[in-house]
Specification:
Elements (H helix, E strand, L loop, with lengths): L1 E6 L2 E6 L5 H10 L21 H9 L7 H8 L3 H7 L1 H8 L8 E4 L8 E5 L5 E5 L6 E4 H18 L4 H23 L3 H6 L2 E2 H8 L5 H14 L4 H8 E4 L2 E4 L6 E3 L6 H19 L4 H7 L3 E8 L10 E7 L6 E8 L6 H4 L7 H12 L8 E6 L5 E8 L5 E2 L7 H20 L4 H8 L4 H30 L9
Antiparallel strand pairs: 1-2, 3-6, 4-5, 4-16, 5-7, 8-9, 10-11, 11-12, 12-13, 13-15, 14-15
Helix pairs in contact: 1-17, 3-4, 4-6, 4-18, 6-7, 6-16, 6-18, 7-16, 7-17, 7-18
Length: 478
């Protein structure tokens, strides 16, 4: 059988084989000869390991210069904050680690804060991965190791003991392994339909939660359901001459009218209609019809996240029926994945499309306005973007307040979720067979995570020293 894929108008045929479950299981067992499960414990910086500060400066070279100090300031706050912004550093390190050569669609930045809740098109609260800026096909182990290292580093930030951290990390690894083994027994459609919604969260993880954790979960769900375009409208806009306008809060939010001379603002806003038309063509037809019911009102640059600070991100205000019917979109610059130097280029010529296609492949459900475009920015340079709703019940874990039992429970949830995301694109039978029924892999990656947390602490210290010496400029408290 042959499948035909179309990439930006170029069709290419790829043969698809259908090995039996037994053959797939044997593929997984034989992959242990490429990398034994115990080999995943190994980590030591290579003699020619790149300077992590050099890697950060490479990324900064194409970012908005005046925003880069904010990124460094946010990363300097703690080793965990550094880790969140150091996906490129870890990708470079992971490239030298053992892999089974079984590949999946990677998130590329699967740390614990990049999991969370959001609304499905059916208006259910789902839990899933929610950041795909770095997505590319690659070794499944890389996502697992980034998730587990984030657990170890976050545990250190919270002051957890070594024993507590190891239990959290190994429990997360076990959840990934057991979940993959369960998924390997399921049909392909059943895997595709798997999702973690509010009901399943309550049924599967509720019995393990304490009364305090259960109440916190209910409060988090209630708060998430108020976080939408209507709330963003109330928080981010004011009325000027009878028309809503995005407020100015520099450097975090800067309306386009403050970034360009008045005459250029009018020309730029006039061109927005063309850009939105280009974006609309990437939406399914029925969602394009829905989008047509909204008109463009305003645009502002917005600083987002930790690792993303300095990349170009815009919030776009649209109005539907009236001012009580707002739609806030976020257009976020899509640059080549940090994984690209180590796993190869994307099959998609547009980096925004790379993000969107990877997200749809990994997530159980995606934003109804998820699309992409390529446009010329206010600096005259062509860049790729992906677009989604700014807020749609989005919520994430409050790592700074987690207790060991809560992080352990959360880690198992993340482990299950990552396994399901990988099973949608990879060979769940082969990966499950590779992992096996024992805890050899779990113990190995737990060892790796603690060792890598030591490396991350050294890298964070290097950042602080670079700031103190004046090599890097950092803005604190923003």
């Amino acid at each position: 059988m042959t499948t035909v894929e179309v990439d930006n108008g170029r069709a290419h045929a790829e043969p698809v084989s259908h090995p039996s479950p037994a053959e797939r299981a044997e593929l997984g067992r034989s992959a242990r000869s490429n990398a034994s499960r115990s080999s995943h414990a190994d980590w030591a910086p290579a003699g020619d390991r790149p300077d992590p500060i050099d890697l950060l400066e490479q990324q900064a070279a194409t970012r908005v210069p005046e925003l880069v100090p904010i990124r460094y300031g946010r990363m300097a706050v703690s080793p965990f904050a550094f880790f969140r912004g150091a996906a490129y550093v870890m990708a470079s390190d992971l490239a030298a680690t053992p892999v089974s050569e079984l590949r999946v669609q990677l998130c590329g930045d699967a740390h614990l804060s990049n999991f969370g809740g959001f609304a499905s098109p059916e208006r259910e609260l789902l839990f899933d991965l929610n950041d795909f800026d770095e997505t590319l096909p690659g070794p499944w182990e890389w996502d697992v190791k980034r998730l587990l290292a984030s657990m170890a580093i976050a545990g250190r930030d919270r002051g957890f003991s070594s024993k507590q951290r190891r239990a959290i990390v190994q429990g997360t690894a076990e959840a990934y392994r057991l979940s993959m083994r369960q998924l390997a027994e399921m049909g392909e459609l059943a895997i595709w339909y798997e999702r973690v919604d509010q009901r399943l969260l309550t049924e599967r993880f509720g019995p393990e939660a304490t009364e305090r954790q259960a109440k916190r979960f209910e409060k988090t769900v209630a708060k998430a359901k108020t976080k939408d375009s209507t709330r963003a409208f109330a928080k981010l806009t004011s009325t000027v001459d009878g028309e809503p306008r995005i407020i100015s809060d520099p450097p975090l939010i800067v309306p386009v009218r403050e970034l360009l001379p008045e005459g250029e603002v009018r020309d730029f806003e006039a061109g927005i209609q063309t850009l939105l038309a280009d974006y609309r063509r990437t939406l399914p037809a029925e969602r394009g019809r829905l989008f047509d019911r909204y008109r463009f009102v305003d645009l502002a640059r917005k600083v987002v996240g930790v690792g993303s600070v300095g990349t170009r991100a815009w919030v776009i205000l649209m109005i539907g029926r009236d001012s009580g019917d707002p739609l806030f979109l976020q257009a976020k610059e899509a640059r080549p994945s940090v994984l690209e130097p180590f796993v190869g280029k994307s099959e998609f010529g547009n980096q925004g499309q790379r993000v969107v296609e990877g997200q749809k492949l990994m997530q159980a459900a995606s934003d109804i306005f998820l699309g992409w475009l390529r446009t010329t920015g206010i600096d005259g340079k062509r860049r790729d973007f992906y677009i989604r709703q700014l807020w749609d019940w989005k919520t994430s874990a409050e790592v700074q307040s987690m207790l060991p039992s809560g992080m352990a429970l959360y880690g198992r949830l993340c482990g299950w979720t990552l396994a399901r995301a990988h099973a949608r694109s990879g060979d769940s039978v082969a990966i499950a067979s590779y992992l096996g029924g024992g805890d050899s892999f779990d113990r190995a990656v737990t060892e790796f995570s603690e060792t890598y947390a030591d490396q991350n602490a050294r890298d964070h210290l290097a950042l602080l020293e670079a700031i103190e010496s004046g090599r890097l400029e950092a803005t604190a408290g923003i």
